[in-house]
Design a protein that fits this description.
Length: about 130
């Protein structure tokens, strides 16, 4: 059951919000370095303040609202997951380790058999 694709029309106001948000992010970085001779706390407050305003403006745009909706849908889906118990997870981990060990042993035996057949039987090289 999939949701039909939603087509959104990006208005001029949304584009302006995104542009202002982007400019505020750039402005935050510029302000941080422009205030280089000021105290560190002032630089950090200016950076974080402008970033918070930029994020706030972004979340009022259509793209921001879609991002919030996506996050909410993701949380709903994670709540639907049936997580294995500790015992089940331990058993599955043991099965994986055993399979890897058996496969490594099989590949080692195959490699040594082919090495013996090629070098000793066919080519006659003795080591």
């Amino acid at each position: 059951m999939s949701n039909p694709p939603v087509e959104t029309v990006s208005t001029g106001a949304d584009k302006a919000k995104l542009a202002v948000s982007g400019l505020l992010v750039v402005g935050a970085v510029v302000a941080f370095y422009a205030l280089g001779k000021q105290d560190q706390w002032l630089r950090v407050v200016a950076l974080l303040g402008l970033l918070v305003v930029a994020v706030g403006i972004f979340f009022t745009s259509e793209s921001g609202k879609q991002l919030i909706a996506y996050g909410q849908d993701s949380v709903k889906e994670v709540k639907k997951v049936v997580w294995p118990t500790r015992k089940e997870a331990g058993q599955m981990t043991l099965y994986v380790f055993l399979f890897v060990f058996v496969m490594a042993l099989f590949l080692w035996i195959t490699d040594k058999t082919l090495e013996w057949a090629l070098y000793d039987l066919i080519l006659g090289w003795k080591r």
